[in-house]
Design brief:
The complex is a heterodimer of chains A (about 250) and B (about 400). Chain A is of the alpha/beta class and about 250 residues long. Chain A is built from eight helices and ten strands. Helix content of chain A is about 30%, strand content about 25%. In chain A, the strands form two sheets. Chain A has a six-stranded mixed sheet with strand order 6-7-8-3-9-10, sandwiched between helices. A four-stranded antiparallel sheet of chain A has the order 2-1-4-5. In chain A, a hairpin with a 2-residue loop joins β9 and β10. The longest helix of chain A has 16 residues. Chain B is built from twelve helices and eleven strands. In chain B, a hairpin with a 2-residue loop joins β7 and β8. The chains are: A alpha/beta (about 250), B alpha+beta (about 400). At the A-B interface, α3 of A face α1, α9, α10 and α12 of B.
C-alpha cells in the first residue's frame, strides 16, 4: 500500500527509551531504544525473561509502553486509540507466530485470505473473491501454490508456518514480525521457513525475527541482543558462526 | 488518526456477508454443541408456538362452528319468581314470540316431571341425570340439531310412545342405534326409540334429554303443556333488539321471571376460560425460552474462553474491539435464530399433529411465527452481549499467550 518513496522518510520501527512494567512490579523493559530502517532483516535475540516478548508486543502495537515512545511506520502509538492501532496492525504489520494459529477445518487459501479481512487500506474492504485471488498469489510466493485446498491438519509443520507467513504478507505490509517462527519446527523445515523470510526481505519487506536461538540469529545481517530488559548489543554484518544461507 | 504525512488510519468496515461468515465460522466446527444449545431455545419457542397454535386452531374451529350454527339463536326459560319458586312460561309463549318482527322461527321444549330408564328393573334413583322433554316438531331446524340415526318425531309418531334420544342420553341408556324392538321406560310407559341426535352445541340441554311428542307427553306422561324453554332465531342484525323484548314477550305477566340467554355467548365464554389456561402454558414456554437463552449464554462464554488464541490472532490481523464484539454477538444470534427456526417448525408440527387428531384446520397465526423468531433474536442478543463484551475487552497479548 504505502509507496516506498514515502516510507523512506522515516524508520519502520523507532523505539525511544521504552520501558514496560507489568502490574505487580515486574520490569520487563528498562529503557530500550531501537531504530529499524525500511528493508532491514533484524533478529532480536535473547534468553527467556530477557524482555524480547515484550519487545514483540510493543513493536506489534499489541501493547503500549509504560514510558518512552514507540513509532511504527511513522505513526506514534501513543496518538492512536484502539481503532487506530487495529488499523495500523491491519495495514502495516504482518505477524507470524510460533504455533501458526491457523483456523482448523479451513483451507490454506481461506486461512490466507482471512489475512485481508480486517485490512482497510485506502479503499473499501475487498470482496471475498478478490481476497482469495490475492491469497493464491501469496501462497505461490511461499512455494505452496499447489496446496491451496489443503486443510491445516493435512499440512506438515513447515507448510503450516509457510501458510501463516503467506497470511502475514498477503496484504503487503511494510513490516513482518516473526515470533520464534522456527520454534515448533525441525531443522530442515526451519531452514525452509528462514529461506522464505529472507526472500521476502529481498523483495523489500522489513523483517524482524524474535528468537532465543543463537544459531538462527547468526544467519541474519543484524542482531539485537536482549538481556534483563535492555538491548545489550546491536551487531551488524556477518556473524562468526554461519547458519543456513539464503 | 493522522500519520506524519497526513496519512489516515481507518479500520476496515466488514461487508455484512463477511460479518455473518465470520460469526458463523465458530459454529460449524462444533456442531454437537450448536445442536444442543439451539435445542434449548427450540423447545421454548416450540412450546409457545404450539400453545398459541393449538388454541388459535381451536378458536378457528369454534368460529367455523358458530358460523355454521349461527350466533342468532336466543333461548328463554322460566327463572324463579320473587319468592324463589320455579316459574312457568305460558302455553302460548311460542306463538307470542313468533309475533316479534325480526324473529325468523321459534320453538320450544317442555320439561316433563318423569324419569326415563333402560328397563323397569332399574332402581328409581339411578335416573342417570336424564331429563324428559316434550318437543315441538320444528325443534331441530331452529336449534340447529341434526339426527345421527333413525328419524325425528313426526305428526303421527308424536301421538304414540315414541322418543328421540339426545347423544348423551343414548349413551347413558346404552342405546347404540334405534330399533323397534328396543324399548325404554319413560314414566313407566314403554317407548320405542325412533332416533338419536348428534350433539347440539347451541342447546346442550338436549344432549341429555329424552324427547317425546307433545300429545303423547300430555296424554300419558302428565305434562301440563307449559314450555320450559323457548328458542328463537332472530334476524342476525336484530339479535340484541329481540333479546331485549324476548322475556316480556314470552311471559307478559311476569317478564322478570324469564331468563334470556344467547347460547353462542356461552361457547365463546368457555373459549375465554381456555384462553386463561393458554396464558399459563405460554408462561411456561417463556420459562423454557429463558432457560434456553441461559444455555446459549453459557455456550458463548465457553466459546470465548476456548478461542482466546483466535481472538488474539484476529486482533493481530487488524480486528478492532468492535469487530470482535460483533463476531461473537453474531455467533450468538445465529445460534439462537437456528434454535428459533427449529422451534417454530417443531411447534407447527405439534399444532398440526394435534389439530389433525381433533379434526380441525391448522391455524398458526403468522404473527406468532414472526414473534417467535423475533423473540429468539432478542434472546440471542441478550445472551450474547456479555460474552461478546468480554471477548472484545481481552487484550491482544493476553489472548495470544493465554
Amino acid at each position: 500500500m504505502s509507496a516506498p518513496a514515502v516510507a523512506r522518510d522515516h524508520p519502520v520501527i523507532a523505539l525511544d527509551a521504552v520501558t514496560k512494567t507489568y502490574p505487580g512490579g515486574t520490569q520487563a523493559l528498562r529503557g530500550v531504544s531501537l531504530t529499524v530502517e525500511p528493508g532491514e532483516l533484524v533478529a532480536i535475540v535473547g534468553p527467556s525473561g530477557s524482555g524480547k516478548s515484550s519487545m514483540l508486543n510493543l513493536i506489534g502495537t499489541l501493547d503500549r509502553p509504560t514510558s518512552g515512545r514507540v513509532q511504527i511506520d511513522g505513526f506514534a502509538v501513543a496518538d492512536l486509540d484502539d481503532r487506530g492501532l487495529s488499523a495500523l496492525r491491519g495495514s502495516r504489520i504482518g505477524f507470524v507466530f510460533q504455533h501458526f494459529h491457523l483456523s482448523a477445518g479451513v483451507s490454506a487459501l481461506d486461512n490466507v485470505a482471512d489475512g485481508l479481512l480486517y485490512r482497510a487500506g485506502g479503499h473499501r474492504a475487498t470482496s471475498r473473491a478478490a481476497r482469495r485471488e490475492r491469497a493464491a498469489v501469496a501462497l505461490d510466493r511461499v512455494g505452496l501454490g499447489h496446496r491451496t485446498g489443503h486443510r491445516p491438519h493435512q499440512l506438515s509443520g513447515g507448510e503450516k508456518q509457510r501458510v501463516a507467513i503467506a497470511r502475514a504478507v498477503v496484504g503487503d505490509p511494510p513490516l513482518l514480525l516473526a515470533d520464534e517462527p522456527t520454534g515448533a519446527l525441525d531443522t530442515a523445515a526451519g531452514a525452509g521457513v528462514v529461506d522464505v523470510l529472507c526472500e521476502l526481505n529481498a523483495s523489500g519487506t522489513t523483517v524482524v525475527v524474535i528468537t532465543h536461538d543463537r544459531d538462527l540469529a547468526a544467519s541474519f545481517p543484524r542482531r539485537v541482543w536482549m538481556r534483563d530488559g535492555v538491548a545489550e548489543a546491536d551487531e551488524r554484518g556477518a556473524a562468526p558462526t554461519t547458519g543456513s544461507g539464503s | 488518526m493522522k500519520g506524519p504525512q497526513g496519512r489516515a488510519l481507518h479500520p476496515a468496515r466488514l461487508h455484512p456477508s463477511d460479518v455473518l461468515r465470520v460469526g458463523a465460522s465458530g459454529l460449524w466446527t462444533r456442531p454437537m454443541r450448536v445442536v444442543l444449545s439451539a435445542l434449548g431455545i427450540a423447545i421454548g419457542i416450540a412450546a409457545m408456538v404450539a400453545v398459541v397454535g393449538i388454541s388459535s386452531s381451536s378458536r378457528a374451529e369454534l368460529d367455523r362452528m358458530l358460523d355454521d350454527l349461527g350466533t342468532n339463536l336466543l333461548s328463554a326459560s322460566p327463572g324463579t319468581d320473587l319468592f324463589g319458586a320455579q316459574a312457568a312460561l305460558p302455553t302460548e309463549a311460542v306463538s307470542m314470540v313468533r309475533r316479534i318482527g325480526p324473529v325468523e322461527s321459534s320453538t320450544s321444549t317442555g320439561a316433563v316431571d318423569v324419569r326415563a330408564y333402560r328397563s323397569d328393573r332399574i332402581p328409581a334413583a339411578e335416573s342417570g341425570g336424564i331429563g324428559v322433554r316434550a318437543a315441538d316438531l320444528d325443534l331441530l331446524d331452529t336449534v340447529g340439531a341434526t339426527v345421527a340415526q333413525g328419524t325425528w318425531l313426526t305428526e303421527a309418531s308424536s301421538r304414540f310412545p315414541a322418543v328421540v334420544l339426545g347423544k348423551v342420553a343414548a349413551e347413558r341408556l346404552g342405546i347404540g342405534h334405534p330399533d323397534p324392538r328396543v324399548l325404554v321406560q319413560v314414566g313407566g310407559v314403554p317407548c320405542v326409540v325412533v332416533g338419536i341426535l348428534d350433539a347440539v352445541p347451541l342447546a346442550p340441554e338436549l344432549d341429555s334429554s329424552v324427547l317425546a311428542g307433545r300429545q303423547f307427553a300430555a296424554q300419558q306422561l302428565g305434562w301440563d303443556g307449559h314450555p320450559t324453554r323457548v328458542y328463537a332465531r332472530a334476524a342476525p342484525a336484530q339479535v340484541d333488539a329481540v333479546r331485549s323484548v324476548l322475556g316480556a314477550t314470552a311471559n307478559p305477566a311476569a317478564p322478570n321471571e324469564v331468563d334470556v340467554s344467547r347460547p353462542s355467548d356461552a361457547l365463546a365464554a368457555q373459549e375465554a376460560t381456555d384462553a386463561a389456561f393458554t396464558g399459563l402454558l405460554l408462561g411456561l414456554g417463556g420459562v423454557a425460552l429463558l432457560v434456553g437463552g441461559i444455555g446459549v449464554a453459557n455456550t458463548m462464554v465457553i466459546s470465548v474462553l476456548e478461542r482466546r488464541a483466535e481472538i488474539g490472532l484476529r486482533r493481530s490481523l487488524g480486528a478492532t474491539r468492535g469487530h470482535i464484539r460483533r463476531q461473537f454477538l453474531v455467533e450468538s444470534l445465529v445460534l439462537s435464530t437456528l434454535g428459533g427456526i427449529g422451534g417454530v417448525v417443531l411447534g407447527w408440527l405439534i399444532t398440526a399433529g394435534y389439530a389433525t387428531t381433533q379434526g380441525w384446520d391448522v391455524a398458526v397465526p403468522v404473527l406468532v411465527v414472526v414473534a417467535g423468531v423475533g423473540l429468539t433474536v432478542l434472546t440471542g442478543a441478550v445472551a450474547g452481549i456479555l460474552p461478546a463484551v468480554r471477548a472484545a475487552r481481552l487484550s491482544p497479548t493476553e489472548a495470544l499467550t493465554g
